[in-house]
Amino acid sequence: MSVGLAPVRQRWIWPALGASVVVIAAIYDVRLGIIMGVWLGAWAVNGWLAGAARGTGVRVMVPLIFGTTLLALWEITVGLYDVSPIILPAPSLIVAQFAVSTDVLWADFQQTILKGALAGYVIGCGAAVLVALAVDRSMFLQRGVLPVGNFIAALPIVGTAPILVMWFGFGWQSKAAVVVAMVFFPMLVNTVQGLKASGAMQRDLMHTYAASYWQSLFKLRLPNALPFIFNGLKICTTLALIGAIVAEFFGSPTVGMGFRIKIEVGRLAMDMVWASIFVAALAGTGFYGLVALIERWLTFWHPSQRRR
Amino acid sequence: MRSVIPVLTVVAVIVAIWFAGSIGMNRAWTVDQAERRGLELSAADIIADTLRQERPVLPTPAQVMAELWATTAGEPVFRERRGQMQGNPRSLFFHAWQTLAPTMLGFVMGTLAGILLAVGIVHNRAMDLGVMPWAIASQTIPILAVAPIVIVVLNAVGLEGLVPKSLISAYLSFFPVVVGMVKGLRSPNAMDLDLLRTYSASNAQTLWKLRLPASVPYLFTSLKVGIAAALVGTIVAELPTGARFGLGARLLTGSYYGQTIQIWSALFMAAICAACLVALLSAAERATTRRMGLGR
Amino acid sequence: MKKTITTALALGLASGGMAHADAHADSVTLQLQWVTQAQFAGYYVALENGYYDEEGLNVTIQPGGPDIAPPQVLAGGGADVMLNWMPSALAARERGLPVVNIAQPFVRSGLMLTCWADSGIVEPADLAGHTVAHWFFGNEYPFLSWMSQLGIGVDGGDDGVTLLQAGFNVDPLLQRQADCISTMTYNEYWQIIDAGVTPEELVTFKYEDYGVATLEDGIWALEENLSDPEFVDRMVRFVRASMRGWAWAAENPDDAAMIVLDYDETGAQTEEHQLRMMGEIALLVAGGDGSLDEAAYARTVSTLLAGGSDPVISAEPQGAFTHVITDAALAN
Known about the structure:
The structure holds three protein chains of three kinds.
Chain A: H1 13-28, H2 30-52, H3 56-81, H4 91-100, H5 102-137, H6 139-153, H7 157-168, H8 172-195, H9 200-208, H10 213-249, E1 251-253, H11 257-266, H12 270-298
Helix pairs in contact in A: 1-2, 2-3, 4-12, 5-6, 5-8, 5-10, 5-11, 6-8, 7-8, 8-10, 10-11, 10-12, 11-12
Chain B: H1 4-37, H2 43-50, H3 61-72, E1 78-81, E2 84-87, H4 92-123, H5 125-140, H6 143-157, H7 162-185, H8 190-198, H9 203-238, H10 247-256, H11 260-292
Antiparallel strand pairs in B: 1-2
Chain C: H1 2-21, E1 27-31, H2 41-48, H3 51-54, E2 58-62, H4 70-75, E3 81-84, H5 86-94, E4 99-103, E5 111-116, E6 131-134, H6 141-150, E7 162-166, H7 171-174, E8 180-184, H8 188-194, E9 202-206, E10 218-222, H9 229-251, H10 253-263, H11 271-285, H12 294-305, H13 324-330
């Protein structure tokens, strides 16, 4: 029920406010005025678009405009204020560098995401679900493992990266190990909570059907746990990505996104650094989107999947 | 209270596995050294040596605890230098404070930013559609890569020391707060919202009287995640600022000089700090919900 | 939210860059290229013994670390001068950051390649087919240059070297993940010895012995600042006091090491390590007075240019150093 922050007859207040901000900024410094103008103008377009129309087109356009505006502001600011490319390169330079380095970035992507992050994600989440099932069977384990698990989850995993590289070597295995360490506990906590999610009436019903533990698990409790499991899986996608990249900072072969970022910062090639960061952001968002898509397919029945 | 025995059992099992792990992983070095010196070692000698190495591959729990004790209780927090009292860099409490200060500042900033963003998202459709995807994307940018860049840029602007670290800490902690608060602000059911509409409440009044109180449980859950994230953010931010002090710095310098015991003790201190912060938040949550009548 | 930050940053960058340059007239900020250790003893001695005070300077020493690229800090206005290895600084110069060498306290290179003797490596040409762990972040240039000159690729395989990006410790060698690692005479080599390995079990190649050494810790500043006479005067005083510090440190290595330990804010350095480091560093600065030896400079440049298909720099640097500061500093 969001009809905007002002009733209809006072809608002129916002454009007037915006215009005066732009004018004041321009008086202070022309460049600042231009930047404010672009920003507020885009905001106005977005606001109009969001209020005027509904539908998938709008859902895609608004974040797209938001993002494009951000990039445009970045480009304009770097250009107007003459910022050195060694500190912050303009998006145009980054795109140019990206275009010439696709083979290097692709090799990095394979090493970090496909080998390190994905392997660790699958192993970590799989192990967490299995341990959650074990913990679920035993009240004793539940009371014992979860508090300890919370403590271990509080360990800054960034700190375990050098240790794990020392143990597992320089290859993708150590990166997978860091990812396993990072995703295990969030996934465990979510799965345990999910297994408790089925209602008492539903469990009693299974009891009246003389269902065994396993039948009850597969037909009732696991499906009910899916929303929580997917919540955990979504959180773990970004954690897996970050874990793999951070682990590479502490030792890697001469390929990988973390490696690339680290050495290119040392060579002051900031455009390559940002191109790599862009690939990481793209990969992370894509991964998250993929899991969200699978979630919609499998848990279509859950209220959170209803379109508002 | 009934959790005490299970927790102790699990901890005991972990400690036992840990000791066994130490012996197993440090064994290679001991045997290697003995071979090169042409010595014969019995199994008991090997075990004894693996538990006492100076640069072990896996320090034993005893070694880590001893180091923790030595650097906390065994070192004064302040020392006299050049006529002034300064923090003592050999004290882990000093480093813990250097990490906790930006963490708490960053956490407060991140929470405020998160709440403001969430309010904006719930009330303004443009922000709702525009900001959320980018907030999610922002979390996929590897902070460890961006932190040095951010610090250099902020130093160029004249902001040094506490503020850059807090900003990075805030960056990591605002996202859980946004997600939780958006969910919380949208949680009041249709009947309650209609009731306030019949009272002719404005959006601001609905926000203040209904949505915000309803979102308190979600807020506290997110705050607990957020504070752990803020701590990680500060530790990450310490690396590009010269790794001079703070738990992250201690972690790193331990790693450069191969002082594995130092790494582990810094890690444990960080975990203890995180656990304490979360416990503080839980206490605050209990007090708040009791006052609000949501008490369970 | 992000747009607000971007705009604020833009505002700040414009004014902040200038603000730093005309800060307090007698203050100097030095950006070290690593954490506080005896490698930088001269500067800490000058601070402790009051040499900077005597020149009327208020000096702030900023330690470096693995994620700090001193050229970047200099570009961002976070420091007035930086310490940097010449290959890294010349590469930065080519990238568009005009840094100029104003003094060169380190006369000799301390870079070495240390291998297990039992890996069968007797001379550098034997490196083909082995695994080497090396540091990056500005330190990779001498190694890549050397391999290029020897005709050994760095992409693995039987006739190339498999290169690993190592963290800044000696574990890759100790854990046998690599046959060789890069070491400094004053730091990593002794960490290996400390870990229980005897010198007989190692074979070491010093870059100096093979003619591929490059100049290391030098004092660099931004070219545009050098056209400001007030800045030049500050630099002259700074270099003069720093070289006094180095001279004192070379003569009193043990006391210098203790001074460095005192300034170590992490509390992680040990006396033994720093005393030994200071002894080795004294060997690297011995005989130098801070002025850049042009013959050594030419050797470094030709080593970097001879990097075969992937040279560190592609053209002879112009105006990369100046004697103006050291001439004035050493005049009295």
